[in-house]
Amino acid sequence: MQLEILTLCREARYNGQALDISGAFDVFVTPRVPLVVPICWLAGRVRFERIEEGPHQIRILIIDADGRPVVPEIVEDLAVQVAPDLPTVCKVFALQFSQFVLPEHGEYAIKVAVDRISLASVPLYVRSGK
After folding, report:
1. What is the mean pLDDT of residues 42-61?
2. Cα–Cα distance, 24 to 55 (Å, whole number)
3. Residue 98: is it exposed, middle or buried by C-beta count within 10 angstroms (0-12/13-18/19+)?
4. pLDDT classification of 10: cutoffs 50, 70, 90
5. Angle at CA 18, nearest 5°, toward 3 and 86?
6. CB atoms within 10 A of CB 41
7. What structural domains does the chain harbor?
8. Residue 64, C-beta contacts closer than 8 angstroms, at least 6 positions apart
9. pLDDT at 77 > cutoff 80
10. Looking at the predicted structure, is the pLDDT value of residue 129 above 90?
11. Would you tell me how many other CB atoms lie within 10 Å of the CB of residue 81?
C-alpha cells in the first residue's frame, strides 16, 4: 500500500471516480492563538495492490509538537477489493473539519497509518504574523 495524496485544503470532494482538491495549504499566519479554522478538509488517497485485498483499518491523527492530538483520532474500517481487470485499487478520503482549533503557534503533524503501519506524516505550521 502506498499513500499517494495527503493534504489539508479549503475544499475536497470525491464523487466515486475523481478526487477534487482546491486550495491545498500547510501554513497559517496569525497574530493570535488559539486559531479557529471555520472549515477545512483533509484529502487523501491510498493505493492497494491485489495481494493486499481484504479488511484494513485506517487511522488519522493530527497532533501538536508534543504528540498530543488536536482533534479526536479518526479510525475507519476499509474493505479493499481490486477489480479483476486491474492490478491495484485506490481508497480515497475527503474529511471535513468544522471549528478546527490549533491552540498555539508552532508545528503540527498529520499522520496516517493503515493496519498500524505508518504511511505518512506531513507538517502543518501556525506562524506568528499580521
Report:
1. 98
2. 30
3. exposed
4. very high
5. 65
6. 21
7. 2-122 (2.60.40)
8. 70, 103, 104, 106, 108
9. yes
10. no
11. 10
Strand, coil or helix: 71: coil
Grid cell listed for 81: 477489493
pTM for this model (two decimals): 0.92
Rounded to an integer, what is the distance from CA 17 to the centroid of its chain? 19
Q: Which residues pair with 67 in a beta bridge?
A: none
Q: How deeply is 24 buried, as exposed, middle or buried, from its count of CB atoms within 10 A (0-12, 13-18, 19+)?
A: middle
Does pLDDT of 100 surpass 90? no
Q: Phi, psi at residue 103, to the nearest 5°? A: -70, -25
Short-list 19, 33, 103, CA closest to 9: 19
Cell numbers for 67, please give them. Answer: 504528540
Instruction: With CA atoms as reference, report the closest residue to 96 among 41, 59, 38, 36.
Output: 41
